[in-house]
Write a structure and sequence with these properties.
The complex is a heterodimer of chains A (324) and B (39).
Chain A: E1 7-12, E2 20-26, E3 31-33, E4 36-38, E5 47-54, E6 57-65, E7 77-79, E8 85-95, E9 98-112, E10 118-124, E11 129-134, E12 140-145, E13 150-157, E14 160-168, E15 175-181, E16 186-191, E17 196-203, E18 206-214, E19 220-226, E20 230-235, E21 244-250, E22 257-265, E23 268-273, E24 279-284, E25 301-309, E26 312-321
Antiparallel strand pairs in A: 2-5, 3-4, 5-6, 7-8, 8-9, 9-10, 11-12, 12-13, 13-14, 15-16, 16-17, 17-18, 19-20, 20-21, 21-22, 23-24, 24-25, 25-26
Chain B: E1 9-15, E2 20-27, E3 32-37
Classes of the chains: A mainly beta (324), B mainly beta (39).
Chain lengths: 324, 39
């Protein structure tokens, strides 16, 4: 399954005192027809919207045209720590030679968010540019390229972005989502093509893959790391029929390792840790993107909250939410 | 039934430590494909 979660969570794990800014990528290049993904005859242009959210507030501020993709993980947008810029990837785009097909794209767009959103730069990385993450300093970013089987290291400086290094994750690895940890000195990247999570080091403008990898279930895809001690990844192997899992990765020590895994349902496409690293939110497609006749079909998705307690994932809450 | 299956909306939720509480829904009219929030 390559679909992307179409209902998102903007969760205030601890209620913010003021409105926060979210950046949403919008794409019309794929639609669902009773479980089948189809390219519409006349899709709307890709767009990026800014949204203000906080307690009792969820408001669209501005929308601009910018290349985005519905294919790939929901982490295709990253905002700098100062909230002034966003990076947006474009994993797939409509084939100019055949508008019934979508083909890999390599574009990453830098958008200045103030005073109103506008594109300031574009950089090209490996084909299938998907998950993106920005380090805590706001000076570097990583982009996983699923078709090129590589991860790109970008340098950010205000309105400029440069490609400074690229590493391969191996043939067929299909890297999907990177996440920094260790104050930006290391990162993880999920590889849903060959069922591994890579450990990367970042130093002096260079990116290096560690020889050790993490086994975190079949087809690890979404990934989140926060709080310094743990990361979580969710698998996408069940294809909307078989149950998928959420895996806790302990980041302590020289080699992170998977320490717990729990079943969460059909296709947990989005995961997000609370900033303090104590809670994990998971959005589960729950078969809502399947054909109505499929055994796992439901008309709604699920939102779950898990707590991290003594190195274990403990379910705290679940609610029905919108469908894929 | 193309498109009718897709919830083209953004949802915000609160977690009070015990329960998930639906807060707001923002209709988008277009397919949301990615989300980023300033850390």
């Amino acid at each position: 399954m390559r679909g992307t979660l179409l209902v998102f969570l903007a969760m205030a794990m601890s209620a913010p005192a003021r409105a926060e800014l979210a950046v949403v990528a919008l794409s019309d290049e794929q639609r669902l027809d009773d479980g089948a993904q189809v390219v519409p005859a006349h899709p709307q242009p890709d767009r990026v919207a800014t949204v203000a959210f906080g307690p009792g507030e969820l408001r669209r501020l501005a929308t601009i045209e910018a290349p985005t993709s519905v294919i790939g993980p929901p982490g295709s947008v990253a905002v700098t720590p100062d909230g002034r810029h966003a990076l947006v990837t474009d994993a797939r785009t409509i084939d100019p030679a055949d508008p019934t097909r979508i083909v890999p794209s390599d574009a990453v767009t830098l958008i200045a968010l103030t005073p109103t959103p506008h594109i300031v730069a574009t950089v090209h990385v490996g084909a299938g540019a998907s998950g993106v993450t920005i380090d805590p300093s706001g000076r570097t970013a990583l982009v996983a390229s699923r078709s090129a089987n590589s991860v790109a290291l970008l340098a950010l400086d205000g309105d400029t972005v440069r490609l400074i290094d690229t590493v391969s994750t191996g043939p067929g690895s299909s890297p999907a989502q990177p996440a920094f940890f260790d104050a930006g000195r290391r990162a993880l990247v999920t590889r849903d093509g060959d069922h591994r999570v890579s450990i990367l080091s970042v130093a002096d403008g260079h990116l290096r893959t560690m020889p050790e990898t993490i086994v975190a279930g079949l087809r690890p895809y979404a990934l989140s790391a926060a709080g310094g001690r743990y990361a979580v990844t969710a698998t996408m192997a069940g294809a909307g029929r078989d149950v998928d899992s959420l895996t806790l990765i302990d980041l302590a020590g020289s080699t992170p390792r998977a320490v717990d895994s729990v079943g969460v349902g059909l296709t947990p496409e989005g995961v997000a840790m609370s900033p303090d690293g104590r809670l994990v939110a998971v959005t589960v497609n729950n078969g809502s993107n399947d054909a109505k006749a499929a055994p796992g079909y439901h008309s709604f998705g699920l939102l779950q909250v898990w707590a991290i307690e003594d190195g274990r994932l403990v379910k705290r809450a679940e609610a029905r939410m919108g469908s894929w | 039934m193309t498109e009718a299956m897709v919830e083209q909306q953004l949802e915000s939720w609160r977690f009070d430590g015990r329960m998930l509480v639906a807060d707001r829904v923002l209709p988008l009219g277009e397919g949301p494909a990615g989300l980023g929030v300033a850390p």
